[in-house]
């Protein structure tokens, strides 16, 4: 885990996302410019593909896209923790949020990645997490 400075709190980064995702059962990492993890052929966390008009797409490994389940949970995260989460018009109507990794603690990241995995894992695979 990286730190903001020698005395600052630990913050998360792309290596932490990778370690957390790969520690979960049945996860496959898809070859990409950043990180992209699936369970049961369903994505649950990946690098943010930033798109700005007139510019080519940039894969941001400092921002994770997370599956959150539904619009209510998405809005709760966006409104409750605006320093951590954001969205863009391309993601309107989708149960996805973007997480600023440098503002997330490792514990919060672990919770979010695990929750995303649980929501995307087929029932027959999800039982293996609790085993």
Automatic annotation (TrEMBL):
InterPro entries: YjbR/MT2646/Rv2570-like (IPR058532)
Domain of life: Bacteria
Pfam families: YjbR
Descriptive protein name: MmcQ/YjbR family DNA-binding protein
Lineage: Bacteria, Bacillati, Actinomycetota, Actinomycetes, Micromonosporales
